Amino acid sequence: MSTVNETASLLVQLKTGTVPWATVYAVTAAVVVGTLLIGAVGFAGSEVLHNAAHDVRHGLSFPCH
Predict the structure, then answer these.
(1) Cβ 46 vs Cβ 53: under 8 Å
(2) How many Cβ atoms are within 10 Å of 19's Cβ, its own excluded?
(3) pLDDT by residue (tens digit) across 25-52?
(4) Is-contact 42 53, C-beta < 8 A?
């Protein structure tokens, strides 16, 4: 299935309200865990941990400053 078809299918599910609750919970959990992880590493007191995360962000072309 192509990405366009998957996106169209998801939009239909959103419009009709048939998105499974498991999907909603999974996406919510991923966003919360990701936010906490980035926040925890970003404000870490250890310079080694912070610098390692900083280098990974640059390596993934993720703007961080």
Answers:
(1) no
(2) 13
(3) 998 999 999 888 888 777 767 777 777 7
(4) yes
Q: Which residues make Cβ contacts (< 8 Å) with residue 54, sequence separation at least 6?
A: 64
The CA radius of gyration of the chain, in Å to the nearest whole number, is 17
Q: How confident is the model at residue 64 (pLDDT cuts 50, 70, 90)?
A: low
Q: What is the pLDDT of residues 3-25, one digit of tens each?
A: 778 878 877 777 777 778 888 89
- Global confidence as pTM: 0.49
Closest CA relative to residue 64, chosen from 42, 46, 37: 42
Beta carbons within 8 Å of 58's beta carbon, 6+ residues apart: 64
Structure-block tokens of residue 31: 């966003």
* Helices 47-59 and 21-42, axial angle in degrees (round to 10): 120
